[in-house]
Write a structure and sequence with these properties.
Largest sheet: 5 strands, antiparallel
CATH architecture of one domain: Roll
Strand order of the largest sheet: 8-7-6-1-9
Number of helices: 3
Structural class: alpha+beta
Length: 144
């Protein structure tokens, strides 16, 4: 029984080290918003949120609609979940440059650290806005 426990501890330490190594690599420099690829190959804009909680509520409500439980979700005139408009700051287009800024508890209240990043928008119509964006929508900016 003790041996099984040490295996799990070793795996936990290895996972934590790999996670932190990825964080260090991702935390350097500016980023470009990649968004998520849709079925047709186009990239969907990525949401910039006040907090990760708002993003999570929107995600849950959107999935609830997707699985046919529309009666359980309050929707706006266009049929979108009302929750998706409450905590969202804006949508960032593919290619928008952002810079990670000092982490904030609001970006990781319901998620593991690093799932969401606190960023400042560097260009485009939303330049200067600050909020949380999911890390998977970001790519390191390549410099010439």
């Amino acid at each position: 029984m003790k041996r099984d426990s040490s295996i799990w501890q070793t795996l936990g330490v290895a996972f934590t080290a790999a996670f932190l190594a990825g964080e260090v690599a991702l935390a350097q420099g500016d980023f470009v918003v990649e968004g998520m690829k849709q079925h047709d190959g186009e990239r969907r804009d990525a949401g910039l949120w006040e907090s990760d909680v708002g993003a999570k509520v929107c995600e849950i409500d959107s999935l609830t609609l997707l699985y046919g439980q529309a009666a359980q979700v309050e929707r706006d005139a266009s049929g979108e979940p009302v929750s998706c408009g409450k905590g969202g700051i804006t949508k960032l287009a593919h290619g928008t440059r952002v810079q990670e800024i000092t982490p904030s508890d609001s970006c990781n209240t319901r998620h593991p650290p690093g799932t969401y990043r606190r960023v400042r928008v560097l260009d485009g119509p939303h330049a200067g806005k600050v909020g949380c964006i999911i890390s998977s929508a970001l790519a390191s900016e390549s410099r010439p």
